[in-house]
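Incident review: delayed structure delivery

Summary: a single-chain prediction request sat in the queue longer than the usual turnaround. Root cause was a stuck worker, restarted by the on-call engineer. No data loss occurred. The affected request and its eventual output are reproduced below so the record is complete for anyone auditing the incident later.

Affected input:
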Amino acid sequence: MIDLSTLTIKKAHDALLKGEYSAVELAESYLAEIEKKNKELNAYLEVFDDVREQAKRADVLIKAGKASMMTGIPIALKDNILVKGKRVGASSKILTGYVAPYEGLAIGNLREAGVVLLGRTNMDEFAMGSSTETSAFGPTRNPFDPSRVPGGSSGGAATAVGAGLALAALGTDTGGSVRQPAAFCNTVGFKPTYGTISRNGIIAMGSSLDIIGPITKTVEDNEILFNAIAGRDPMDSTSIDLGASNLKLKTSNLVVGVPRSFLEMKGIDADVLANFNESIKKLQARGYTIKDIELPTIPYSLAVYYIIMFAELSTNLSRFDGVKYGFHKDADSLLHDYMETRAEGFGREAKRRLLLGAYVLSSGYYDAYYRKAISVRTLIEREFAEAFKSVDLIATPTTPTPAFKIGEKTKDPLSMYLADIFTVPANIGAIPALSIPSGFVEREGKRLPLGFQLMAGYGQDQLLFDAGKTFEG
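Output delivered after worker restart:
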């Protein structure tokens, strides 16, 4: 019997090499857990029908002495990451029946390494949400309290790891969509420096913000998975190779900046702040210097993010018209075909954001909203660059509250958007950020996880992994 509750990628790799169990047996253990728990949690939309065949191929690599650290490791994928020959739909009705004709570098690297892809997980429709409630296939539930959300938009992926239905998972992070659900599900979520993981092979929402991010049990596992999928991709003009950048990594006398005034905003749970202060003390006890800093422009990140994201998704989602692929609704003319297909194929939140995106890009409002948001984005990037001259890391809570109840915020979009207040700055600044489990709070007799977020300067991804492992102890 494999103990999945304490299993990590490193432990599984060592056990597979020693022959304690096979990749097939490991995959079978996860398939059994999925069978047992997924009906209640709704983490997976589909379990791939070739999981056992993938595991058998991994066993061949292991026996031939050709195994890498990821060989035979069972992982889940968010439903906007393409796997050639597999269905993918961004949890939207409008992509019903769509089969991916290609896959990107990240999945190609994993396939080459012999990873076992378990299936595709539920998400907010086209990554539009912070709770995995906007999916066309119903909400995913939090593994610590099924009456609460798992966060979003990568809620299915985070639940899969948090509930023991996958050893690791890949999500995408546009404004916190890996880190926020990771915090709600007691997992480690990482948003890398923009461009370090190719965007080729993901269904785009906000092209200047999107990036694939790993969700794992430990920081070490996160680092292993990140290194397996990162790299320069000739199919993505925005991708970069950090290894060729010659960035210097500081390893001693590290200073952590705390933007105190940013943390005093309304709506932040008192228990979250108390947990954050304990986390800061923990870092201080392990040799880090703590320094209060001012980031006066950072509070505008949320408004900037939503204007830019609305604009970019409005452009990206214009391709879904019922003609090229996916769902189609017949009407009495081509124009009405478009209108009825999109009206029935997109959900309520998708329609709201599409309309707002078209609005901020319209000729009468482009300068007032979109152009101004781009200008403030530049100020935020400069503010981060200036801050990282005096500190090595910046710390905040990952989320302003613990996981909230399903249905609690669906009628109040602004309240839902505020769930991203601490995560969006890293996407606006194109810098890396890591969410680490930092403890629990009790609500209605349930222990709910909290997350502690660290951000680093552009390209300093390794600094976050090192600090995260120190924080874990």
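Verification: The mean pLDDT is 95.
Action items: add queue-age alerting; document worker restart procedure.
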